Amino acid sequence: MAIDPTSPVPKYSQLRDLLLDWIVETGLSVDDPIPSERELGQRYELSRMTVRQTVDLLVSEGKLYRVPGKGTFVARPKIEMSLALASFTEDMRARGFRPGAQDLVRRVLPASGGTARAMGLEPETPVHHIERLRTADGEPMAVERSSIPLDLAPGLDGHSLAGRSLYEVLEQEYGIILDSGEQTIEAGVCDPADAKLLGLPQGSPVLSMRRRSFANGRCVELATSRYRADRYTLHSRLDPRRPGGS
Ligand code: 16G
């Protein structure tokens, strides 16, 4: 396939699609090098500037990565997160990764006004405040901050969550089985503290998620999480609209 100079699609964008197809067709895999920008320019009869624009785009999309002085290589595919009431542990295992958790902060605190409102609690109700760094195959993936009412899980602060699933502890130790939830997702950037934990430059893009999980109508967890946007993509099944539904 060649670049179509009469197409309304910009040339750098046509080259993006051609390159991605070429990577699949030639069977290139993770960490394999792609041809140099000079070679690509010759092959597709494009200026060096256009090729550079395409490679920059593919790097920013996380499909390629550059190593200064060495070249440009095929990046690892992103991890696809399904929008379900699954735990990080379940989600990672289902995708063939080894899940991990580092306990960063564990405290019992009075719920702030916002937390109390979101969880349907009286202001200042004691909640477990849990901050964890989540890893997949040992690589930092997300920083998760959760609030859980103390009365639902007394003594939870005494259970180490390092390398353990919070949802498993809630189920096994407290008999809490989450049965519904809701989640909002928005684009965000890494603040200095999270950038350090995630091993990313400050200001890197993240997926900022806020989840409320319930059991028998009661809010069990309010969690705000920051996931690396360079490693994650979200996947959601789309069901048909029901007649009369909103
Ligand atoms: C997910 C949840 C998080 C929950 C965790 C429990 C999102 C954005 N967050 O990561 O709220 O605390 O699962 O995972 O989905 P665990 O049972 O493996 O500790």
Describe it for me?
- With 246 residues, this protein is α+β, with helices and mostly antiparallel strands.
- It folds into two domains: 64 residues, Winged helix-like DNA-binding domain superfamily/Winged helix DNA-binding domain (Arc Repressor Mutant, subunit A), CATH 1.10.10; 156 residues, Chorismate lyase-like (Chorismate lyase).
- 27% of the residues lie in helices and 33% in strands.
- It has seven helices and ten strands.
- Strands 4-5-6-9-8-7 form a six-stranded antiparallel β-sheet.
- A hairpin with a 2-residue loop joins strand 5 and strand 6.
- Helix 1 crosses helix 3 and helix 2 crosses helix 3.
- The longest helix is centred in the N-terminal third of the chain and has 15 residues.
- It is elongated and about 70 Å long.
- The relative contact order is 0.12.
- The mean pLDDT is 94.
- The structure holds 2-acetamido-2-deoxy-6-O-phosphono-alpha-D-glucopyranose.
- The site of 2-acetamido-2-deoxy-6-O-phosphono-alpha-D-glucopyranose has 15 residues, from helix 4, strand 6, helix 6, strand 8 and strand 9.
Indicate the topology.
Layout: H1 11-25, H2 37-44, H3 48-60, E1 64-67, E2 71-74, E3 79-82, H4 88-94, E4 99-110, H5 113-119, E5 126-136, E6 139-149, H6 166-174, E7 180-189, H7 192-198, E8 205-215, E9 218-228, E10 232-235
Parallel strand pairs: 3-10
Antiparallel strand pairs: 1-2, 4-5, 5-6, 6-9, 7-8, 8-9
Helix pairs in contact: 1-3, 2-3
This protein binds 2-acetamido-2-deoxy-6-O-phosphono-alpha-D-glucopyranose.
Residues 87-89, 101, 144, 146, 165-168, 209, 211, 221, 223, 225 line the site of 2-acetamido-2-deoxy-6-O-phosphono-alpha-D-glucopyranose.
